[in-house]
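Priority: medium. Attachment 1 of 2:
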């Protein structure tokens, strides 16, 4: 399995008080606290996860 382009996401908002679906999406991205960064493979599925919690994360260049 070849690894494609990678992107880094950083959590900038708290998961406290958010729906369980959004908390689980953050965990799926490898994030669990503000300021934490995770590098993930840039796939349509990951882009969809980022879109679901766009108000809580930012893509780092």
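Attachment 2 of 2:
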């Amino acid at each position: 399995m070849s690894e494609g382009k990678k992107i880094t996401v950083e959590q900038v908002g708290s998961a406290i008080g958010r729906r369980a679906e959004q908390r689980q999406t953050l965990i799926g991205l490898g994030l669990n606290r503000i300021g934490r960064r995770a590098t993930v493979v840039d796939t349509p599925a990951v882009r969809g996860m980022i879109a679901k919690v766009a108000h809580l994360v930012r893509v780092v260049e």
